[in-house]
Amino acid sequence: MVQKAKILLVDDRPENLLALEAILSALDQTLVRASSGEEALKALLTDDFAVILLDVQMPGMDGFETAAHIKRRERTRDIPIIFLTAINHGPHHTFRGYAAGAVDYISKPFDPWVLRAKVSVFVDLYMKNCQLKEQAALLRLQLEGGGKENGDGKESAGLLAELSARLAAVEEQAEALSKQLDDESADAAAVATAAHLERKLTGLRRALDALEPGTGSGAPLPSQG
């Protein structure tokens, strides 16, 4: 069973959280509520999230301050943040949102379909990245146990074939996602994230190919940062 991605919804107004849940329920992912910046930071201590939808106007710690804390933490700094605001203060306010680390800045009322589509892109990227990390972990085990397979190498060959097939499936999905982003003129942040994912896939494929018989097994494993 494929594990669902978690999406963090941060807003001090319960009716806004309910509306976001209604819009995003069609994605069939795990939606986590936070009614304040402090509550959001607490949730981020223990769980991994594909994307954060963050209200700007909140009492106490507002969205900008919450985002600053998120970006300062190594564990959470790469999580995409979409700012939601009920007030349009002009270009300066929007620039402040991007400066705080947001990948998008959306004014309410927003188009539910557009918001769902934007969130869906980051969920897809997150899921592909999780698959990539899984393949890298399996490959690392293969590299570390290279001298432990049985004499005829059948066990090693079987694992390599399985890894190659799994990686091919992720490569195909990532390629399709990149084409979709190109076709839809998606956000620059989403395109950049997809390109980064493809670079890591290329590195992993090279390392896996280096394990094939006759090619040696000294290829370095690609970084997963």
TrEMBL record:
InterPro entries linked: Bact_response_regulator, CheY-like_superfamily, Sig_transdc_resp-reg_receiver
Q: Which residues carry this modification: 4-aspartylphosphate?
A: 55
The keyword Phosphoprotein is assigned to this record: yes
| Response regulatory domain: residues covered | 6-123
- In terms of superkingdom, the source organism counts as Bacteria
SUPFAM superfamilies tied to this protein: CheY-like
Task: Kindly state which keywords UniProt assigns to this record, in alphabetical order.
Answer: Coiled coil, Phosphoprotein
Q: From which residue to which does any coiled coil extend?
A: 160-187
Question: SMART domains attached here?
Answer: REC
What name is this protein filed under?
Answer: Response regulator
Q: Which organism is it from?
A: Streptomyces similanensis
